[in-house]
Design brief:
232 residues, protein acetyllysine N-acetyltransferase, binds zinc ion, alpha/beta, transferase, NAD, metal-binding, six-stranded parallel sheet, Rossmann fold
C-alpha cells in the first residue's frame, strides 16, 4: 500500500496523536533553517555562542543584535502544514511538540502546543520576572518598568529544557496512539530522545525531505510535508 495512504489510515484509526515538528515545517513560511546554514554566520562568533546564555550575560548587546536581527520574523504567517495540523486538532486529541521557537503552531490555532525550546514571542524581564510584549523587546531590551533586561523565553545554549515541557511531552507520548515526526532531521537531543517514551504499539511516521534514522521501526515518507499534508 502507498505510504501516504498508510498515513491517512493511521490518522483515521487514532484518537490521540503526537506530532513532533522541526524547522522544515516553518521553512515554507520564510523562516530559514539555521542548522543547515551554519556558514551564514562564519566570522568572529559562531551561532552557538551568539545563542548562548554566556553571550546574553557577558555581551548582552551582541546577543540582542543577533537575536532581533536574525531570529524574529514578526510578519511570518502559518503555512499549509501548520493549518492542517491545527485542523486535525479540531477532530482529534493532537499534541504538537515543536523545536521551533517561532510561535506559528499557536498562530495557526493549535490549542495543545509544547514549545520544547521556548518561544520568541513569550518575553520576560530577568530582573522583575514580569512578562513583556515581543514588540517591546524588539524596540529595546530594557524593561521600561524597572530598568531590568528583557529576554525571550527560549532555551539558549547552556540552559536546560523546562521541566514542564519535558513532563508534558512524556505524558503526551505515553498516551499517544500515533506519532508523527515532521520537518526535522531528528538529531537534536534531548528532543529526539522523546520517542523512547511512546507506547511500543503506537506506529511512527516520519515526513521529511531527507531520511531520518530511528532505533525502532517506522515508516519514512521522504517528501515535502506540504504535499503530504495537502490532503490530510
Ligand atoms: Zn522588569
Amino acid at each position: 500500500m502507498d505510504k501516504n495512504k498508510q498515513l491517512h489510515e493511521a490518522i483515521s484509526a487514532a484518537d490521540r496523536i503526537v506530532i513532533l515538528t522541526g524547522a522544515g515545517v516553518s521553512v515554507p513560511s520564510g523562516i530559514p533553517d539555521y542548522r543547515s546554514k551554519d556558514g551564514l554566520y562564519a566570522g568572529k562568533h559562531n551561532p552557538e555562542y551568539l545563542l548562548s546564555e554566556t553571550c546574553l550575560q557577558t555581551e548582552p548587546d551582541v546577543f540582542y543584535e543577533f537575536v532581533t536581527q536574525n531570529l524574529y520574523y514578526p510578519n511570518a504567517k502559518p503555512n499549509l502544514i501548520h493549518t492542517k495540523m491545527a485542523e486535525l486538532g479540531e477532530k482529534k486529541a493532537v499534541t504538537i511538540i515543536t523545536q521551533n521557537i517561532d510561535g506559528l503552531h499557536e498562530a495557526a490555532g493549535s490549542k495543545s502546543v509544547i514549545n520544547f525550546h521556548g518561544s520568541l514571542y513569550h518575553c520576560y524581564c530577568e530582573k522583575c520576572g514580569q512578562d513583556a510584549n515581543p514588540e517591546d523587546y524588539l524596540r529595546s531590551d530594557t524593561h521600561q518598568n524597572c530598568g531590568g533586561r528583557l529576554r525571550p523565553d527560549v532555551v539558549l545554549y547552556g540552559e536546560g529544557i523546562s521541566e514542564a515541557a519535558i513532563q508534558g511531552s512524556i505524558e503526551a507520548l505515553r498516551a499517544a496512539e500515533l506519532v508523527l515526526i515532521v520537518g526535522t532531521s531528528f538529531k537534536v537531543s534531548p528532543f529526539c530522545n522523546l520517542i523512547d517514551f511512546k507506547r511500543a504499539e503506537a506506529p511512527v511516521f516520519a515526513v521529511n525531505k531527507e531520511p531520518i534514522f530511528l532505533s525502532q521501526p517506522f515508516t519514512m515518507i521522504q517528501d515535502d510535508a506540504r504535499f503530504v499534508f495537502a490532503d490530510i
